[in-house]
């Protein structure tokens, strides 16, 4: 029985040492959680109002495959989005957890983890006959990144993060009648993740004494500079992984009148089983002390010899389902009004658990408790002449993170408001291009996350502060039509 208790303590410490690796996911994206709605530049100019109804170009393969039936000739579209996130974080009392006395963490009072990213889209649509169309979409429906300074105060929860999902989506549409079109598609996804955080060598040193019975002393730790929260002697931990998943999508487009289109689109959730590696860069002074442990206990030796080993790691992630209802109303020959409501099922993301293939390295668990959210948008298209169309749109995008306690430094997200403008220009009957610009504003965003596994309260790093963020997106798209 005594041995079992010791094993439990050793595994408790091993989780404490790398708890930051599992603390959250990724930076604020642009459609709730870490979803990305940036598919096509023409839609961006409307804040994606009416995206499942308008069938303006090849991007309809993604938003509503049924809309392919509205495209009369073969069409190829290539889009590129530049996303720039401006973020300032201000500390308001970040510290180590109560299990370590709430010690202060060294570092500056502010940090700027904003990033700049480019996202491509590729689309192709072609008629098979009067009834059937086929198409292909290639894009990035989920993804984001953060990059904090190495010395920022929340470094034991995160320093860097990167997530990318490449989605290849073939699709078919069928023209049922003059008023009804249906569509279906498959999503083949490749997910890749990198999560990095600092390791507090001082906390690790003291923890090995108290939980693993290591023979070195607190004085030995301090004499080697291994003081909790001391940036100069931090180590580093990084988890990488990738996965392949498959999902499906369904769409319908209704034309009850010549001037009205109503689109319905559903994308099913996609399960990912990530496999990868956990790599550790251990402070040299800590390595020396680990090797000096003379406690003859097999359990103590197992911990000091086995902790911070590079091992395999795995995790499970369910990317959420979405359902959209869009409308397009041609008021008169020059003016079209657009609307959209999209539900995203983020309640599927309740926790992030990273499993380590190491008997002395217990899993890290971060409770998320995310909520389902809605995105609402309205927009308009105004046709100046046969070549030029101007676009505008507004959107309100709910955040899935329920409160400041569940918000993490990897995802300092909040509700977003979109302000969008754009234009389309037809050079000829074979070539056109689109431009769009969107500015997103977020309310001041508090974070008060203790970074702990719920079964081990007080063992993480408390990150407490305010985020002030905004996002700019500039998109361009070229379209070729083949008669």
What does it look like?
By secondary structure, this protein is mainly β. It has a single domain (2-482), classed as Beta Barrel (Porin), CATH 2.40.160. The chain is built from seven helices and 21 strands. It has helices at residues 2-17, 41-44, 60-63, 201-212, 218-223, 284-291, 298-306, and strands at residues 74-91, 95-96, 110-111, 116-127, 132-147, 160-175, 180-199, 235-257, 260-267, 270-281, 311-319, 322-332, 335-344, 351-356, 364-367, 373-383, 388-397, 416-426, 431-442, 445-449, 461-482. α1 (2-17) packs antiparallel against α4. The model is unreliable at 1-19 and 23-29 (pLDDT under 50).
What is the name of the CATH class?
A: Mainly Beta
Q: How far is it from the N-terminal to the C-terminal residue, by CA?
A: 79 Å
Please state how the strands of the largest beta sheet are arranged side by side: 1-4-5-6-7-8-9-12-13-16-17-18-19-21
CATH names the topology as: Porin
Structural class: mainly beta
The CATH superfamily name is Outer membrane protein transport protein (OMPP1/FadL/TodX)
Counting H and I runs of at least 4 residues, what is the number of helices? Answer: 7
List segments where confidence is low: pLDDT < 50 over at least 5 consecutive residues: 1-19, 23-29
Spell out the key features of this protein.
483 residues, mainly beta, Porin, 14-stranded antiparallel barrel, 12% helix, disordered N terminus
């Amino acid at each position: 029985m005594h041995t079992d208790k010791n094993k439990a303590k050793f595994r408790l410490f091993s989780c404490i040492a790398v708890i930051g690796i599992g603390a959250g996911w990724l930076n604020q994206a642009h459609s709730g959680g870490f979803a990305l709605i940036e598919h096509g530049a023409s839609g961006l100019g409307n804040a994606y109002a009416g995206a499942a109804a308008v069938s303006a170009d090849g991007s309809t393969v993604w938003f509503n495959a049924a809309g392919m039936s509205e495209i009369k000739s073969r069409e190829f579209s290539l889009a590129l989005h530049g996303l720039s996130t401006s973020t300032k974080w201000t500390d308001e009392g970040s510290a180590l957890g109560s299990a370590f006395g709430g010690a202060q963490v060294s570092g500056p009072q502010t940090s700027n983890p904003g990033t700049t990213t480019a996202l491509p889209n590729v689309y192709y649509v072609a008629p098979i006959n009067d009834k059937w169309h086929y198409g292909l979409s290639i894009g990035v429906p989920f993804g984001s990144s953060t990059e904090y300074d190495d010395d920022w105060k929340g470094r034991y929860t995160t320093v860097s993060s990167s997530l990318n999902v490449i989605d290849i989506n073939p699709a078919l549409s069928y023209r049922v009648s003059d008023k009804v079109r249906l569509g279906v598609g498959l999503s083949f996804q490749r997910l890749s993740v990198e999560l990095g955080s600092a390791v507090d060598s001082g906390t690790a040193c003291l923890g090995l004494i108290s939980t693993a019975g290591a023979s070195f002393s607190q004085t030995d730790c301090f004499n080697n500079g291994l003081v909790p929260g001391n940036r100069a002697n931090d180590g580093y931990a990084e988890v990488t992984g990738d996965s392949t998943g498959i999902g499906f999508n369904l769409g319908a487009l209704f034309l009850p009148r010549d001037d009205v289109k109503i689109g319905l689109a559903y994308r099913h959730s996609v399960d990912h089983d990530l496999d990868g590696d956990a790599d550790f860069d251990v402070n040299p002074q800590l390595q020396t002390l680990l090797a000096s442990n003379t406690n003859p206990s097999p359990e103590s030796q197992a911990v000091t010899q086995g902790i911070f080993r590079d091992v395999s790691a795995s995790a499970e992630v369910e990317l959420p389902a979405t359902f959209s209802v869009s409308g397009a109303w041609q008021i008169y020959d020059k003016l079209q009004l657009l609307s959209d409501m999209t539900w995203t099922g983020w309640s599927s993301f309740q926790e992030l658990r990273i499993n380590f293939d190491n008997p002395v390295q217990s899993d890290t668990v971060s409770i998320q408790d995310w909520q389902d959210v809605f995105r609402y948008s309205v927009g308009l298209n105004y046709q100046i002449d046969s070549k030029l169309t101007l676009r505008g749109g507004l959107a309100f995008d709910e955040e899935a993170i329920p409160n400041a306690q569940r918000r993490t430094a990897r995802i300092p997200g909040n509700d977003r408001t979109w302000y969008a403008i754009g234009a389309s220009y037809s050079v000829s009957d074979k070539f056109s291009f689109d431009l769009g610009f969107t500015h997103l504003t977020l309310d001041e965003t508090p974070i008060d996350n203790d970074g702990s596994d719920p079964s081990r309260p007080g063992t993480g790093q408390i990150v407490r502060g305010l985020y002030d963020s905004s996002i700019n997106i500039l998109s361009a798209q070229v379209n070729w039509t083949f008669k």
